[in-house]
Structure formats: C-alpha cells, structure tokens
Amino acid sequence: MSRKVALVGIGKIARDQHIPSIAADDAWELAATVSRNASVDGVEHFSTIDELLTKRPDIDVVSLSIPPQPRFDYARKALEAGCHVILEKPPGQTLAESYALERMAGQTGVSLFATWHSRYADGVPAAKAFLAKRSIKRFQIIWKEDVRRWHPGQEWIWQPGGLGVFDPGINALSIMTEILPWQVHLTDAVLEFPENRDTPIAADLNFTNPDGAPMNAVFDWRHEGLQTWEIEVETNDGTLKLSAGGAQVAIDGQMVVDGSNHEYANLYRRMTKLIASSQSDFDMAPMIHVCDAYALGKREVVAPFSY
Ligand code: NAP
Fold first, then answer.
1. 277 in a domain, yes or no?
2. Which residues line ligand 1 (CB under 6 A)?
C-alpha cells in the first residue's frame, strides 16, 4: 500500500521534481496539496496547512517545498499534528529554528528528513569512496550560474533568510560535507551584496583541513556562459572531478560515472526507509558553513541587481 503525502508550496521545485518523483514511485501517493495560489489537477487542494491537518488526518507525511522563510511554522504545525516531515533545503532560516524542529520530531517520535538533494546525485558515492583512501592536495568548488535563468522573479531569494547565491551554493557544500573523509571549517570569506539586495550575489570561501591543502569555493550568480557546478580535488593519487552538480565523475580525465538526475526519486526512497525504521536524517553541516560565512565573511557592496 502506498503512503499518502501532502505537498506544500506548489512552485518551481514542486512541479519540476517532487510531483514527478512521487508519481513515479509506487510507495507514494500525492494525496493533497497546500498552496496559496496553485493546485495540481486531480489532487485535493487546501489553502492552508491548518485546513489540511484538520480535514485529512489520514495523511501522515508532509513534504515542504516552500521557501525557507515561512518553513518553520509549517513544519512545527505538521510535527505537532504527528506527521513525518520532509524539509526542502535549507532546513530553515536559522540554525536555532532548524534544531528546534529536530527536537520536536524527537519528542513526537516522527521522522524528520532535512534533505540535501545534491547528496543524492549519481556521482557522489563514487567521489566519497575515491577520497576516503587518499590525501588531498587541493580542493576547489566552482558553482557559477545565471540567476536570471534559474530563479526568474523569485524575490524571496534576495530577502533576509533567502540565502542569495548560497541557495545553490549550499548544494555544493552539501556534497563537500558528504564526500570529505574529515570535517573542515571556514577560515575566511568575501561576500558580494548588490547594493539594492539583502543577500549575496557572489561568495568566495576558504576552509581549513587536516591535510593542510588549499580549499576554496567560488559561488557566482552573474555567470552567463557555460553553467558550471563542479568540484575538483587533486589528491596524492589522481585528480577527481565531479561535474553537472554531482551527476558525473571523472578521475584523471576519464569519466567513471556518467549519471542522470535521480536526486528527488532517491530522496523519496530514503524517506520511505526512514519512516520504516523510525529514524530521522538531520545534518546541519552545510547550513553551518553558510552561517559561518555570514558571521566571518567580509562584505563588499557591488552593482545593484534587477531582473
Ligand atoms: P518558489 O517556486 O518561489 O516557491 C514555491 C512555492 O512556495 C510558491 O509557488 C508559493 O506557492 C509558496 N510560497 C512562496 N512564498 C511563500 C510564503 N511566504 N509563505 C507560504 N508559501 C510561500 O520556490 P522554489 O524554487 O520551488 O524553491 C522552494 C524551495 O526548494 C527552496 O528552499 C529552494 O532552495 C528549494 N529548491 C529549489 C530548487 C529549484 O530549482 N528552484 C532546487 C532545489 C531546491 P503559493 O503562492 O501557491 O503559496
């Protein structure tokens, strides 16, 4: 029997990924949606989460694909109603509110899944296995994309809590924190804020590591050429390149994984297992690096941005 899920926030990622992934998985049924201005044909629709929780007690999984700013209240209500909850990345606007959700899930005994979809890209397990046995000489993230192409008209990304260029950049950090055999921390950063915006359009981050190797991440939302989501790692025994956001892996120029996009299908499979084993999956490591960059980063004001 399939498990009923309510999807909250019928916007870009809901339509691009959540709805097709749920439809393709026999273990799941899209039983309801909650959205203020949108609905899905043939699926019962509610305008508020309160209405959903009151009228559909048979639904015990809520998947939140709304932006981070309103997410806490939605998640809190779903957890208090005894529902298992799937959080889009990032898990919240702040560390404290995200950890509060983790505590609530623990108290009610439901599964909370703070998803990092990029960790489920096809090349990530091979990259992790490769790095586990090597020492690192250089680690470089290049995450450069055109915000006008990927986030047209999304004002929330420019508002406090919206993360700006860290919205895609945190995907790279989620891969970094998954594939490295040890933990790192930020040593310095430069964040570029458009003079008319509250979140950065570009960031340059440096990290420390036990191997003493240079580790750098460059995120830029002003990139109009070839869209680039790459991590290159030079080791004592070969150079690893993760590209296409983690779907592809090459070692010394030789392609060893040429994957496609199964990230969200994998997320729903993972949630099925979490519920079956009464577990949660809640790792704040990528968000901690972003918060550290906000705390430690030097701020530069750059040209205003408009769509
Ligand atoms: P979006 O399309 O701008 O927003 C999703 C929906 O959330 C909106 O259509 C809106 O639906 C609802 N919403 C917006 N603001 C709200 C508010 N203040 N209160 C309640 N509901 C609100 O955003 P998205 O691109 O799908 O991103 C949503 C989340 O998914 C973000 O955390 C993002 O980082 C993550 N994500 C996005 C992508 C991507 O490619 N876009 C990829 C991976 C992850 P109604 O107006 O109908 O309520």
1. no
2. 9-14, 35-38, 65-70, 88-89, 117, 154, 156, 167
